[in-house]
Design a protein that fits this description.
The chain is an alpha/beta fold. It contains 9 helices and 7 strands, in the order αααβαβαβαβαβαββα. 42% of the residues lie in helices and 23% in strands.
Length: 239
């Protein structure tokens, strides 16, 4: 276990994350609670210490660091699942205001305990579907940045995420090694939804040497009101 936490400390130094002792303690508690809840419900298929630290904590933090998130940004983590990347982001950058959205109430219940036990503030938890929430005035085109990790193919994910992004903001997706093909498939959808590809980057997850990529899509014009379509349609009939 000591070796695994050394990975996180080394990553903090190598990527200039500057994690403090209190933040490391929050990650330790997060891991313990995730494993505890995972015995009662399926939160993650990765539940060993090394897997959680590298594939969830470090993977999330490297992705977020590469996005270059600014102070005072209002951020949405869509399809957060067990809290990735939103909870690592909140631990690392506690000053940010973050909204975590998931379609399963049991995951929101878990995240509520995480927020309370880790003493996190300025975190809003929402149980709902992207297709419904993005049509609400409180959330449509209100966010500086929307992040999403391991939720859907980029063609579908763009329809879920871009309607939440305000003009001048961007959507950032954490992806695997097949980003180039996903980008080609999603080109038309991104344009329709008011986006423009701003950056793509390919990198390696340290320690396990697995390939990762990220895509940043800038919001250059408003998303037509008919998007996202009603629940289920983006995945059944991608743009």
């Amino acid at each position: 276990m000591i070796k695994e936490w050394a990975y996180l400390l080394e990553t903090s130094e190598n990527y200039r994350l500057n994690l403090q002792a209190e933040q490391m303690e929050q990650f330790v508690l997060f891991l313990k609670l995730l494993q505890e809840w995972n015995t009662k419900m399926n939160l993650t298929a990765i539940d060993d210490d090394e897997g959680i630290i590298i594939k969830h904590f470090i993977d999330s933090l490297i992705f977020l660091k590469k996005i270059d998130i600014k102070n005072q940004w209002y951020i949405l983590d869509l399809g957060t699942g067990a809290g990735f990347p939103g909870i690592p982001l909140k631990i690392w950058r506690p000053e940010l205001e973050i909204v975590l959205v998931d379609s399963l109430q049991k995951r929101i219940n878990f995240l509520r305990e995480i927020v309370e036990r880790l003493n996190l503030t300025k975190v809003k938890l929402i149980h709902g579907r992207a297709e419904d929430l993005a049509q609400m005035e409180d959330y449509r085109e209100k966010f500086d940045c929307v992040v999403s990790r391991a939720v859907a193919n980029l063609r579908v994910l763009s329809e879920y995420c871009l309607p939440f992004v305000k003009i001048g903001g961007f959507f950032a997706g954490a992806k695997g090694p097949d980003l180039k093909q996903e980008l080609m498939d999603a080109h038309k959808a991104i344009l329709i939804l008011g986006g423009q590809v701003a950056e793509e980057e390919y990198y390696e997850l340290p320690y396990l040497r697995e390939q990762r990529s990220l895509i940043k899509i800038a919001k250059i014009k408003s998303t037509p009101k008919k998007y996202p379509r009603k629940a289920g349609m983006p995945s059944k009939k991608p743009l």
